[in-house]
Amino acid sequence: MFSHLPEPTLDPILSLSVAYRNDSRAEKVDLGIGVYKNSKGETPIMQAIELAQKNVIATQKTKSYVGLAGCEEFNQSMVDLVLGASPVLDRVSVIQTPGASGALRMLGDLMKIAQPNTTVWLSNPSYVNHQPVMEAAGLKVKHYRYFCPKTKQVDSQQMLADLSQAGKDDVVLLHGCCHNPTGADIDFATWQQVTSLAEKNGFTPFVDLAYQGFGDGLEEDAAGLRYMAERVEEMMITTSCSKNFGLYRERTGAAIVLGKSARDAANARGKLLTMARATYTMPPDHGAALVKTVLQDAELKSIWREELDAMQKRLVSLRTALCHEFRTTHGRSDFDFIQAHKGMFTVLGFTPEQMIRLREEFAIYGVGDGRINIAGLTENDISYVADAILKVS
Ligand code: LMR
């Protein structure tokens, strides 16, 4: 049965963490997987989450099943966080999922059932797991131009030109904020233009919001997708608590569907629940119980918002420090683009070979597509990393 299977290919992000762990060099720097680290290079449990955990442990009386959709209070909290007080809430449905990757797959499977001929358009480049998940769901994938290697910013004109080809059998996947891997986000005017295209040509927007709060703030990071949700007939959204609640290993996320009517949204949810039953039955509860506890308690929520705000500000200051190092120590302004990027990631514009050199010669781990995780830097690494980047460039 198994003897014809080929050797597995390594995951381009997760395999880096293993290689990093096994690297014995003292100077090693992990800029691979998207995990936030503090100035000591640690990823501590957020204080609001620790307090919520004490509360959950003290009050939870059973480990019995929750339900196919997960925790309904968590689900409602996620809709509030993502869509705010949107006028379209009456035609929205939601399920809790095992992380945002779980949400991507559930919605991919839903599309395959609801509209088998769907083509999903991904930005070029996009999160390395987008294409595998969509293809695993049996969907066709196309790419739209997005990132200009020269300016290191979004080329909105090219993006809009490509998306003007997308029609009613198509789904366009957008990054809600903090584009992975580039760090280059579309501006509000581009959200408006993509929305107009969706209304005119009939494609369905699908927004992956994995970093809400890491770009410009919780509300600001959702502004584009909220504008869109108020105007389009149908839309899908995935969201994650891995980064903004630091719950990486708890696999806590949600899949949100906006239907043409409340009935459509409810039917889409019904289908998602049937699919969940045939896949994992129900999502793991612990992370959702923690998030629900934080978001339903004014004091915990305010602690969490402050912590998230501090993380976002630290990312901006690490970007500033890196650009400053290139400018003042090395007299180089051609890395200023790093400052304009949002969230955890930046692409350097390096080839896979240059990324291998960074790893082999300097023990600096970034992803093969040229992505580095700014959140993996500590203030002490800045000068070493800037120097190595210049030696490899
Ligand atoms: C990343 O892009 O590094 C994270 O989202 C981790 C993952 O699941 O790939």
TrEMBL record:
Keyword Transferase listed: yes
Gene Ontology MF terms in the entry: transaminase activity
Residue span, Aminotransferase class I/classII large domain: 27-389
Keyword Transferase among record annotations: yes
InterPro entries, A to Z: Aminotransferase_I/II_large, Asp_trans, PyrdxlP-dep_Trfase, PyrdxlP-dep_Trfase_major, PyrdxlP-dep_Trfase_small
Record-linked Pfam families: Aminotran_1_2
CDD domains: AAT_like (cd00609)
Keywords per UniProt: Aminotransferase, Pyridoxal phosphate, Transferase
Cofactor(s) needed by this chain: pyridoxal 5'-phosphate
Complex and partners: Homodimer.
Recorded family membership: Belongs to the class-I pyridoxal-phosphate-dependent aminotransferase family.
Protein name stated in the entry: Aromatic amino acid aminotransferase
Protein's organism: Vibrio panuliri
